Amino acid sequence: MAVALIVAAGSGERLGGSVPKAFIPCGGRPLVAWSIDAFRAVEAINRIVVAVPSGWTAETGGEAEALEGCVVCEGGAERSLSVRAALAAAGELDPSQAVLVHDAARPFVQPELIERLVAAVAPGTGCEVAIAATPVTDTIKVADEDGNVLSTPSRDTLRAVQTPQAFTNRALAQALDQGEDVLSAATDDAALAEALGLAVQLVDSPSENFKVTTQNDLDLAELILGRRAKAIVSR
Length: 235
Prior knowledge:
alpha/beta; Spore Coat Polysaccharide Biosynthesis Protein SpsA, Chain A
């Protein structure tokens, strides 16, 4: 069985909301609720841990309902510190047990992607880290600090990294067993594993699994999830 760690400890300052980003209403529900639903739909997931901002408590019925059945813990000041807190809150796990890390700000994750990531790090595969990623469609330029182009890498070799990211418990614990300065600088847990020499496998993911970061992202998510909510009600 596998465990999901959902990082929902961000403040959402860039969205200007009065509640943490993961709990901003979107499609009639807190943003994080959509990710939780996707993990609940996967039979292999038997525990969901949600890292929330320090000192935060659910203030509405919708927030409490979204977290029902989940283990809730306080996150840290930086993303990987929240992941470490969530892993500790997950309780005792086998070294080879699959642990998936997901950003609450990616509400479009689908159960099928979660299942493929769990399978990628299953015992016997020889893989301990697998991450969702999508091909880059824009041309990318490498530039110096003055804005001068240094090179143009081939798009064939480039991938935009997403979440979920799947690890064996052993691999994730090893990646997170570093100083707070290292964890605070990390934007991607797989990069911590890479730096330790662990191989990372890419699992194809749709570009629709985007992260809500700006107001434009939130507006688009509201449109898509609002339609989805209406479809669910009409069934």
